[in-house]
Amino acid sequence: MNCMVTDFPQIGFGTADLGEKAEQAVKGAVIDGYRLIDTARAYNSEKAVGDAISSLCKEKRIKREELIVQTKLSPTVSGYYQTLDDFQRSLELLQMDYIDVYFIHWPVIRGNEENYRDKNVETWMAFEKLYQEQKIRIPGVCNFLERHLLDLFQNCSMPPLIHQLELHPGYQQRGLVRFSREHGMYIQAWSPMGRGILKKTPFLEMAEKYQKDLAQLALRWSIQHDYLPLVRSGSEEHRKSNLDIFQFCISEEDMQSLDALNTNDGFMDIWSYKRQQMY
What we know:
Layout: E1 12-14, H1 22-32, E2 36-38, H2 46-58, E3 68-72, H3 80-94, E4 99-104, H4 116-132, E5 136-142, H5 146-155, E6 162-166, H6 174-182, E7 186-190, H7 201-210, H8 214-224, E8 228-231, H9 236-243, H10 252-259, H11 271-278
Parallel strand pairs: 1-2, 1-8, 2-3, 3-4, 4-5, 5-6, 6-7, 7-8
Helix pairs in contact: 1-2, 2-3, 3-4, 4-5, 7-8
């Protein structure tokens, strides 16, 4: 039952901030050709994802095993038994018997700052149990820094297999990506289009050169770095446009120009991000 990341599509569909549009957006995304759907307890979209996929399966538009569905532990939950309970709730909302990829959403959560290291180890032990019981096919983490990963490597029997990070030309986290890959982790990119970075001159000039829109150029950059970008949109036009990135390549010289846009600033100015830097 366990799958390999080599089975993954090159692009996935995310459901953060879609609200009431989530169910129809997921249905549309699957019909358009997306085969990886990303959700999370924090997005409040698990039920919508479950309803969409259940409906498509009943209509025989898709088979469950043709999709990779991934979700994330609630960012307010940590610890062994709490994780098992939260996972069961995700299964119920998704209306599924198993989840393809299950993530710890954040390494440091509010209220567990002083003992987050021990809590993360307990949480990961629950992940290992779920993996052994074949309730999850791949365990992963999101937004972990090197020190957070080392806690798991040193105290658990199975390392994370996937790391989901904010990654785009304006925020490349090169050291963390390198460290994760050195430890055998596959990289997924959330917010692959960044914010504001697409309006910078190199992007505007290259979009004209390749006759692609700015989002397509950013996604192609991600693909050529061997990341799996996660996109989201309630618009059918944008969903299809985001898939139209496999008939062109950015030249090595142009990739270097885009790489030069890197900064050390993520765009998420929220407590969750700041907390990771503090502990």
